[in-house]
Amino acid sequence: MSIANGLTLARLVISPINMWCILERQFLLSGVLFVLAVVSDVFDGIFARRQARANRIGGILDHSADCLFVSSALFALAFQGSVPIFLPILVVLAFIQYVLDSRVFQKEKLVPSRLGRLNGICYFVIVGIVVGEIVFNAWWVSDLWIRQVFSWVLIFSTVLSIGERLVLLINRKAVDNQHSQH
Question: Is the pTM of the predicted complex or chain greater than 0.85?
Fold first, then answer.
């Protein structure tokens, strides 16, 4: 197993542990797991490229680990009322759409979108904001409505991203149909 895949698998393993920590209000441990998840996400890609092992399966595994980590954390945070329940639901739907639209099951490369990539980063940010707010007793974050507004902005941008992918899929199918008729 490569270092990159080991880091990605570590993120998969800590995801349910982090969810449990949030549900049990063990936010200091959740904060440590969050930092480990972010570090593993940054370095798995670096190691994969340096070792010339970046591939489709590794990409799928990396995105799956990201989705599992942020969606499980967001579901736990939504259960506690820290973020709207729509956010983790949309994260999962956007990920499923991303995988299906990218035709990964037909052995094609994952097709990223700028908005989707930005959303992926921001899903980690919102988890970090909420967990950090609690760990560091930063009550002023809630008083300024930072996480509340950011959560709804992410919901809106995720819906936009899903819509963008639908439009691209429809356009791609139209082009494929035109090519098959000629």
Answer: yes
